[in-house]
Design goal:
299 residues; alpha/beta; Arc Repressor Mutant, subunit A; D-Maltodextrin-Binding Protein, domain 2; 3-stranded antiparallel sheet; 12 strands; 47% helix
């Protein structure tokens, strides 16, 4: 029968295309790794790795088996995590993801509380787009993720944290010269927004269902600070989430912020797999995150 150890050797070779480096990753000697690969090939009856003095490459069947092997290794790791989580739910590693329009503004306020309340929990943070975060949680690469709805999360469990409204950001010179109001600026105007892939782009355009908001197609930013820099230069207007503003993203910039009380807010949520054994821990984390948001809003 093939073993997880053999699969681990094969995946390491696939990742490095070098037997020496693969052996280092697996904390074994090169002869031990080579013997393990050979045993796996003999067991399966196929050649998995082509090796010459100058190069290492996987055969087509080797590439296919590597992908299946990765899934098996991940499943085995999940089994270990499940057992560990049942014993000590607030200890060990926790891999949390967040979208870029939430993570930088909420996590710094919540992290000290999380570390104080769960001193034996090692929290690893990842910033990714929503679709990637959902995939990460579903596949087990992440334990939970901070995202904003509406977004299709499939069968993941959802814990709402708070509603996040918007302000309209316009160049400060416009506000001073024209006594601009949010309604005036939105009427017939085009918004500078984040590039496709950011859920905030869709949420911003849907903030006023009764208005035909349009995106300025000549520009797409990769981050909120970039958007703010463009607005401050007088190049256009944009919508900024209240969370980011309370987190200081527009502080000491050349933009004026106009309230949008009638905008449809996005809903910030925490998601995780419904099968997770750490649900009680995730609920506590959700409470801490919601409290951190409330504290940010205080003057």
């Amino acid at each position: 029968m093939i073993t997880l150890r053999q699969l681990r050797f094969l995946v390491a070779v696939a990742d490095t295309l070098n037997f020496s480096r693969a052996a280092e990753l697996c904390f074994v000697t090169q002869p031990t790794l080579s013997a393990g690969i050979k045993e796996l090939e003999e067991r399966l009856g196929v050649v998995l790795v082509e090796r010459t003095r100058r190069s290492v490459m996987l055969t087509p069947v080797g590439e296919e088996i590597v992908e299946r092997g990765r899934a098996l290794l991940l499943g085995a790791k999940d089994i270990e995590r499940i057992a560990e989580a049942h014993l000590n739910v607030d200890e060990g590693d926790l891999r949390m993801g967040a979208i870029p329009t939430i993570g930088p503004y909420l996590i710094p306020s919540a992290l000290p509380v999380l570390r104080s309340q769960f001193p034996k929990l090692n929290i690893y943070l990842r910033e990714e787009m929503t679709e990637s975060l959902i995939e990460g949680v579903v596949s087990g690469r992440l334990d939970l993720a901070l995202i904003a709805l509406p977004f299709d999360v499939g069968t993941l469990e959802v814990r709402p944290l708070f509603e996040d409204g918007y302000h309209l950001a316009v160049p400060r010179s416009w506000a001073e010269e024209r006594a601009a109001s949010a309604s005036d600026e939105l009427e017939g105007g085009k918004l500078m927004l984040l590039e496709k892939g950011h859920c905030l782009q869709r949420h911003a355009l849907a903030a006023f269902p009764d208005r035909d908001l349009q995106q300025d197609e000549s520009f797409a930013a990769t981050s909120l600070p970039t958007l703010i820099a463009m607005v401050s230069e007088g190049l256009g207007i944009t919508l900024l989430p209240d969370l980011s503003l309370d987190g200081g993203v527009a502080r000491n910039t050349g933009v004026a912020l106009l309230p949008l009380p009638d905008a449809c807010p996005r809903t910030v949520v925490l998601v995780w797999r419904s099968s997770s054994a750490r649900k009680a821990l995730f609920e506590e984390i959700a409470t801490i995150l919601a409290k951190a948001r409330s504290d940010l809003a205080q003057p």
